[in-house]
Amino acid sequence: MNREELLAAAKNGDPNAEKQIAFRMLEGKQGFTKDEATAFKWMLSSANKGDASAQFFTASNYFTGKGVAKSNMLAAQWLLKSAESGDKFAQFDLHQEYDGHWGIGGWKIFRRDLKKAEYWLGKAAAQGFLVATEHKKRLHSGQ
Question: Is the pTM of this model over 0.85?
Answer without folding.
Answer: yes
